[in-house]
Amino acid sequence: MSVIRTQVGIIGGGPSGLLLSQLLHRRGIDTVVLEKHSRDYVLGRIRAGVLEHGFANLMREAGCGDRMDAEGEIHDGVYIAHQGRMDRVDLARHTGGNSVLVYGQTEVTRDLYQARADMDGVVIHNARDVALFDLKSAAPYLTYAKDGATHRVDCDYIVGADGFHGASRKAIPSDVLREYEKVYPFGWLGVLSETKPVSPELIYARHERGFALCSMRSQLLSRYYIQVPITDTAAQWSDDAFWAELKSRLPQDVAETLQTGPSIEKSIAPLRSFVAEPMRYGQLFLAGDAAHIVPPTGAKGLNSAASDIHYLYHGLVDHYLNDDDAGLDAYSEKALARVWKAQRFSWWMTNLLHRFPDSEDVDQQLQRTDLDYLFSSDAALASMAENYVGLPY
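The chain above was modelled as a monomer; its predicted structure follows.
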């Protein structure tokens, strides 16, 4: 069995694991990243594209912000379509100048891979059957299988950024771990198309037929979503059927300017909330989807993972460079406090904008009233804007 020694063993080569590895390497802290899949597989995943200003700053601190700043779209506002009209939330005005940056997760990951390669960072792909050992000791270690052999990574700390189905959370004893989950009775059918976005800023639409979202990846690549029953499959929806349903849920003047085209990716994402507590067990720290999942309505999935990385990064730097463990000791509490606020915001937006199968007339009227109140109150708009651009770390 081959053995590698490192300071921080990171499970998961998605944006969370790569970002933490890059940040720590720049401060002289050694890491090894284990990724179950190939690099091409990781880069083939189509995910979120709205980055909070705090996430964007982390990318810059990691030395990975040049292409993001050159190609990303700065959005100072967001639209909500309801009752046939469009109202705008002025994010910048209500947050003292903050905004969000539209830049695809695939591009974030690509930039991080390039940065890791430039620094000769160790990222091991196709690392299968990862297992965690001696988490309560001062010398935890990982094993994984690759090329027909078992390999071992000895480390001081382990970071589990390996997603909901990964090994990390499962390594915490069931009598220690507490899990919270809410599953919504619908999903989002998403289409990626090589078309000009219908709006310069995102449009969230509440309609009696169901929710819709007009998003983008660039000025030449659009991402659209419609709410569908959780029992639907992407194969049931032709491109023509999708475009017709999307148009029916948008204000008429927006629908008339919508450019349509062949889908280059089509999939259905279920909506659920999930939180695991605690996010630390011994020398293991959970981050991102390994510990929490939010409905995509509030654009908080990738951004919640980034806040975990912020806390972990600073805690590990203080440990290694300042002999100070306060940040690591407080990690779970700090991370969870922000995670639950992101869960609340995503829950609020999901309930505000979606049509629930068992909803009654009173529920529909309350949604309409909530939206009317939102756009009649500077305080309500400031609260939404503050949460959308990202609460402070």
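The chain has 14 helices and 21 strands.
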